[in-house]
Design brief:
heterodimer, A: about 625 residues, alpha/beta, 8-stranded mixed beta sheet, 23 helices, elongated, B: alpha/beta, Rossmann fold, 6-stranded mixed beta sheet, SRP/SRP_N (chain A), Signal recognition particle receptor subunit alpha (chain A)
């Protein structure tokens, strides 16, 4: 059951909550939804999971962008309620009729909501029942149609669709067999009647000859129960000399749609449906027959149940091709017109081309494909249904919204003032520990030296810890940097456990009063299980203040994979209840990319952590902060 | 080329005609017309200048969850309706404060803006700061200490903003949720904020050459920071959005948006 349904404005005022379901929500799921999903530009996602002590909720939402309203439904995660989306859209529709910006209380909406909810629940119940019954019913119906059609076309390979559906159907065998019996008998009746009735669509009349042939086979293979359908099909295929075909296509999956050969609407099964329902009364005398012949056809089922549905995809495609073309024609003129009058409500089709172009542009700037997609979905969700203001084109509205979204993502969620944190740690008399992690060759050691240099400039005493005990020359590299910068370095050579080295380094720093400890680790691929485990051990053992992920700006789609896997491994392998994840990103080699700055966006979006530094060169001074506005401008240029 | 020549000739003819026409007007009238035009433009400019100093915009800012939206609706309607969630967009309105509805006489409406406090939406604040006549900075007196760093950074950013310093915008530090027992007092909050801002002053002024995050620095060199060091007036008050005790806030607003 629904836990709660809320309607609130984008400005934050709650307009209506469902008072019937009086449960108070545990924790604050709505606020968390807004903060971690809607404001993070993930509003294109389907649902949001929220866990609080004592409750696990799933939240679904929808926007009314024109009026600036948000509709959120909360329910327990273990109940998979099917009617929530439906209910949300109905509520949206009826509330927008009632909505008035001056009104703050909508108590009369309770009644409307109750009705809508009952409607939605009833509909969902129906759908569920239909699904359970519908598979056998539609299956057999289709079979009937298929038999007849086969006669028509000759060589129709549309076999076993219903049968295959049966295969995947829920095992309500008893009920099914009843129905199939009914259908079979129905079929026999029809066929026996020499197709004079012609109730079924698509010219049964023509198939009399074929039917006669098949009839004998049908008698034998009638009403198998679950597998029964196949029998008729088989008869069909034999009759149509398509046995070879049947044998040749054993491996096709069973979930394809019906092939439609002529221009008849694919609704013929719908029409058949009514017939079979009528004939349910004739179950009795065929039931006995159904029982014993069920098993033998099972394996045969396999053979050709595959078959079928090669498709109807053919039909779909020509249809869909026309639509975009004509939508385009209408698009140009109406967009010009609408840009002047500015009255149109933005629809998905209007936004489609503009968003697609924007996505392409983002991808040419080296933004990961998945991220660009999600961003576009989120912008679409926030613009759909909004009114175009006058004298603006759709593309400029979309651009403005995307720019807004990008600024929002790149703006850090928390303060990235490291110096402040260092001072805070200093007061507590313990060193501020920073761990640099990342894959191989991104520039951890180089940028570690740059950060040390910067900290030194701000009168902070730094110590380096050489925990890269694997790569040859790593310790020497750090030693050289330390010598140049005149800062102490803690090293234990090679082939030592990095976690232990780090621990000792921190103890040493506490002893000699260093403010910051910079820990260098070995580069590792995100898929490498033992190495990730070692990293997790290092972090768990030492509990650093900042886990800095070093990523290069040249990375493309792999950024998403790297960051998500790192975070996942860190959280999975963590021993304490509060796993330490990546706290910040250091973007390196920024000078090598001209304007393909998309990696910054991908990394920030996927991890949610801010970019703290940007490395833009190979000397000590080449370290700067991320300039959000400049990046956004470059991305959308 | 021929077209150009023709057009030039035509233009010259027209200009000659125009000059003749103007010269035909008796000179006093001409001078009078020009003088009038000049006066009109000067008048328009001065109006615009004067109007700028009398803005009636009051900003409600503060961290996310401090109670700005509730306060906004209290000020406007006298009740906070059914509660609020994290705002995604600013709430704006120009209205007469609710408690003044009963007063007779001409009362100037206030343009109240509630800016979302979420850090991702921080940029919205900068749009409104230049036009603000007064700022109400709402602090959650209940959850003060856990968030003290974020609160003080936000306040520091506002106090060092270029427009705020230039216009000497008065700031009211409003401690919200004081109806709860465990809420801190305004004196405590003020002292803590001063301490935190002092720390911020030291770390922020050590700025790298690459960029400058804050336009100005606060306070006087060498002395511990105190709110009286700010050029703009900073006062502290208490309020409770939930129960409706917002008198101090209302007085502050009225004080700075003269009717």
């Amino acid at each position: 059951m629904l836990e709660q349904l809320l309607i609130f404005t984008r400005g934050g005022l709650i307009l209506w909550t469902c008072k019937e379901i009086g449960n108070a929500l545990k924790g604050s799921p709505i606020d968390t939804l807004i903060r971690s999903c809607l404001l993070e530009e993930r509003s294109g996602a389907v649902s949001f999971n929220y866990d609080a002590p004592g409750a696990a909720y799933t939240l679904k939402w929808t926007f009314h962008n024109d009026l600036g309203l948000v509709f959120v439904a909360v329910y327990q995660r273990i109940l998979h309620l099917l009617y929530v989306d439906d209910l949300l859209s109905m509520v949206k529709q009826s509330f927008s009729e009632v909505y008035d910006p001056k009104r703050m209380a909508y108590d009369d909406f309770d009644e409307t909501f109750r009705q809508l909810r009952m409607e939605a629940e009833a509909r969902a119940e129906e759908l569920r029942k239909i699904k359970q019954l519908g598979k056998p019913v539609t299956g057999s119906v289709k079979k009937q149609g298929q038999v007849l059609k086969a006669g028509l076309e000759g060589g129709n390979k549309r076999v076993g669709e219903g049968g295959s559906k049966k295969d995947d159907g829920d095992g309500i065998k008893g009920k099914v067999s009843n129905l199939t019996n009914g259908h079979h008998s129905n079929e026999n009746h029809k066929l026996g009647d020499d197709s004079q009735e012609g109730d079924l669509a698509n010219g049964k009349e023509n198939t009399s000859s074929n039917v006669a042939v098949d009839l004998s086979k049908l008698q034998k293979l009638r009403s198998k129960g679950v597998r029964g359908r196949g029998g008729v099909r088989k008869a069909d295929s034999i009759g149509n000399k398509s046995s070879k075909v049947a044998a040749a296509e054993p491996a096709k999956k069973a979930t394809k749609k019906n092939r439609v050969w002529d221009d008849a609407a694919p609704k013929q099964s719908k029409l058949d449906f009514t017939d079979s329902v009528d004939e349910n009364g004739n179950n009795d005398h065929v039931e006995v027959v159904a029982a014993d012949q069920g098993e033998s056809m099972m394996d045969k089922e396999e053979v050709f149940s595959s078959d079928s549905e090669s498709d109807d995809d053919d039909d779909d495609e020509p249809g869909s091709d026309e639509k975009p073309a004509e939508a385009k024609k209408k698009g140009w003129f109406s967009s010009v017109f609408q840009s002047i009058t500015g009255k149109a409500n933005l629809e998905k089709t209007d936004l489609g081309p503009a968003l697609k172009a924007l996505k392409e542009r983002l991808m040419t700037k080296n933004v990961a494909e998945e991220i660009a997609e999600k961003l576009c979905e989120s912008v679409e969700a926030s613009l759909e249904g909004k009114k175009l203001s006058s004298f603006t084109r759709i593309s400029s509205t979309v651009q403005a919204a995307m720019e807004d979204a990008l600024v929002r993502i790149l703006t850090p969620r928390r303060s990235i003032d490291i110096l402040r944190d260092v001072h805070a740690s200093k007061e507590q008399r313990k060193p501020y520990v920073v761990v640099f992690v990342g894959v191989n060759g991104v520039g951890k050691s180089t940028n570690l030296a740059k950060v040390a240099y910067w900290l030194q400039q701000h009168k902070v005493s730094v110590m380096m810890a050489a925990c890269d005990t694997f790569r040859s020359g790593a310790v020497e590299q750090l030693r050289t940097h330390a010598r140049r910068l005149q800062i102490p370095i803690f090293e234990k050579g090679y082939e030592k456990d990095p976690a232990v080295v780090a621990k000792e380094a921190i103890q040493e720093a506490t002893r000699n009063g260093s403010d910051v400890v910079l820990v260098d680790t070995a580069g590792r691929m995100q898929d490498n299980e033992p190495l990730m485990r070692a990293l997790s051990k290092l972090i768990n053992l030492n509990q650093p203040d900042l886990v800095l992920f070093v990523g290069e700006a040249l990375v493309g789609n792999d950024a998403v994979d790297q960051l998500s896997k790192f975070n996942q491994k860190l959280s999975d392998l963590s021993t304490s209840g509060n796993p330490r994840l990546i706290d910040g990103i250091l973007l390196t080699k920024f000078d090598t990319i001209d304007d393909k700055v998309g990696a910054a966006l991908s990394m920030v979006y996927i991890s949610g952590s801010p970019v703290m530094f940007v490395g833009c060169g190979q000397s000590y001074t080449d370290l700067k902060k991320l300039n959000v506005k400049a990046i956004v401008k470059t991305l959308l240029k | 080329m021929d077209n150009w020549e023709d057009m030039k000739i035509v233009a010259e003819q027209w200009s000659k005609q125009g000059i003749e026409f103007v010269q035909q007007i008796p000179s006093p009238q001409l001078y009078a017309a020009i003088a009038l035009l000049l006066l009109a433009t000067i008048w328009l400019f001065s109006i615009r200048l004067f109007r700028r100093t009398k803005s009636n915009t009051v900003l409600l800012s503060g961290l996310s969850g401090s109670g700005k939206t509730m306060l906004f609706y209290r000020l406007r309607d006298g009740s906070s309706h059914q509660g609020a969630v994290t705002s995604m967009e600013p709430n704006e309105g120009t209205f007469v404060l609710h408690y003044e509805n009963i007063k007779k006489g001409k009362v100037k409406p206030v343009h109240l803006v509630d800016v979302p406090g979420h850090s991702r939406l921080r940029s919205k604040l900068e749009e409104y700061l230049p036009r603000a006549a007064a700022i109400v900075f709402v602090v959650d007196a209940l959850e003060f200490l856990p968030n003290i760093r974020a609160v003080s950074e936000y306040l520091y950013d506002i106090l060092t903003n270029a427009s705020v310093v230039k216009n000497k915008t008065p700031v009211l530090l409003c401690c919200n949720k004081t109806d709860k027992i465990t809420a801190h007092t305004k004196e405590f909050i003020r002292k803590q904020m001063e301490k935190e801002i002092e720390k911020l002053r030291c770390s922020r002024s050590a700025v790298s050459t690459a960029d400058i995050t804050n336009d100005f620095t606060l306070g006087i060199e060498g002395e511990v920071f105190n709110f009286s060091h700010c050029h703009n007036k900073v006062t502290v008050a208490e309020a409770s959005g939930l129960t409706g005790e917002i008198d101090q806030v209302q007085d502050f607003i009225r004080e700075h948006v003269k009717p």
